Amino acid sequence: MRSARRAALSVLFAALLVAGCSPDSLGGLSASASGTPAAGPSGTAAASGGAAGRAIAVGAGPQKTYTVQQQPAPGSCRYRHEHGEPLQDPKCTPGAVSPAVTQANLASTICRKGGYTSGIRPSTSVTGKEKKLNAASYGYTGRMGDAEYDHLISLQLGGDPNDYRNLWVEPADPGHRTGSGVNNKKDPVETKLHTAVCKGQVTLASAQKAIVIDWTTALATLHLA
Length: 225
Hints:
The protein is α+β, with helices and mostly antiparallel strands and 225 residues long. It has helices at 2-18, 124-138, 186-198, 204-213, 218-221, and strands spanning 46-47, 56-58, 80-82, 85-87, 96-97, 148-151, 167-170. The strands form three sheets. It has a three-stranded mixed sheet, with helices on one face.
């Protein structure tokens, strides 16, 4: 009798697997049931709210000494364009946040009087080399002086200072006068988001998510336009 019952249960379980049911859907615990954050790229933890529902990776945060970071393979990244403006390739530059900045410590980090970003910014001796490597990743062939090596999630929004996932060579805006240096429309968006976060109008996570998805629509998405 017991043998017949075990055989019947085995047949039922096999049928459920064929139907597409997993052990989790049968009442098992998922990997995140313990409350531990899901792992991000390179095994780092991840903050909630990434593009298309994906979590945003958490980088190493501010360092006393920065080193040149390996970049995506040459020619492996593709620019996108929305409203005529250049956007990053989400596969190469998905964004990364700093673990040193949280919603709970805004007053002592990005919103503190006297500024925050100057003390955590990598030196140009590091970012200059990274910029050239990243330009090759994106196939950028324009004037380097007109392109910004940009933090996708800016430092004033808690972006990681030197994680390769948060940095990209941002081309000049359409109509930009060649040789006039860096001057793009993304910077004012970052400043407005920073102000809104520090005033409590939006959360840090929502601002980070909006700029990762599309900086050209971030303000409208958060009803700040």
